[in-house]
UniProtKB/TrEMBL annotation:
SUPFAM superfamilies named in the record: ClpP/crotonase
Protein name: Enoyl-CoA hydratase
GO biological process assignments: fatty acid beta-oxidation
Enzyme Commission number: 4.2.1.17
Residue intervals passing through the bilayer: none
Organism of derivation: Agrococcus casei LMG 22410
Amino acid sequence: MHDATPAEAKPVLLVEELEDRVVATLNRPEKRNAIDQQTIDALHDLCERLESNPRTLILTGAGGTFAAGADIAQLRDRGAAEALEGINTRAFMRVRELPMPVIAVVDGYALGGGAELAYAADIRIGTTTTKFGNPETGLGIIAAAGATWRLREIVGEAIAAEMLLTGRILNAHQSFAARLVTHLDDDRDEAMARAHKMADSIAKLGAQATQATKRAHLAPRSAHPQIDLEEQSVLFESDDKRERMGAFLDRRAER
Ligand SMILES: C/C=C/C(=O)SCCNC(=O)CCNC(=O)[C@H](O)C(C)(C)COP(=O)(O)OP(=O)(O)OC[C@H]1O[C@@H](n2cnc3c(N)ncnc32)[C@H](O)[C@@H]1OP(=O)(O)O
């Protein structure tokens, strides 16, 4: 277990580094995992360490909440310069652009910046307590840390507009129906077990191919199909591709 803060301080992000995956847990349950500057710094540290490392990142929250948003106590005192700096946005974009699959296990509330961090993941798994919402306009600000574009990519324009413009909070079943989560499990333990099972599957796939897929998946529409062809041209020459296809044809591969 690697802590993102000095030993004597309570870590706001618990980071467990396993052989082929990392589990990062937001850890301010008494503040419903509200994302403060320390958490943002810890997310940057995490991304730094992950750039070249594991096959999968699993992101979750402690204490029955994913994250109740950016820390309002800190947001209240921020001005125009800090808004333009995009303190949360830059950290969440970095999570979005990580080279490995990112799975968010969203138990309880994912609101405001908490939702936006979950939107930065590739895959979201919910529980029966999951609740997604973007209540920022109720605080006199916009959902500037990703929701105005990313939410629409996930749920489509109609639901995104309703969530952003009315602040409506979706319960677990509504979140599943909107495809904000692709699975709903009974509780966090079950959802984590599912995330680990996905990480097991990912660990068996071609590492280079997974990273290439993620790059192509994140690329703008205008980059396609050229980016697919270029990524494929590298993979077609790889030893891993030759070995995996040979294993299939020689019946050495698991079927
Ligand atoms: C660009 C991005 C912007 C944003 O993200 S803006 C923030 C958007 N988020 C919200 O507006 C949600 C705020 N939180 C809530 O509405 C509620 O919490 C919940 C519904 C999530 C949970 O309610 P319950 O279980 O009754 O807990 P509790 O008593 O409200 O909170 C426990 C402690 O956590 C603090 N807290 C909760 N959310 C935040 C937050 N987002 N920023 C700062 N503190 C927060 C509270 O104040 C309190 O603290 P204390 O015990 O000291 O009174």
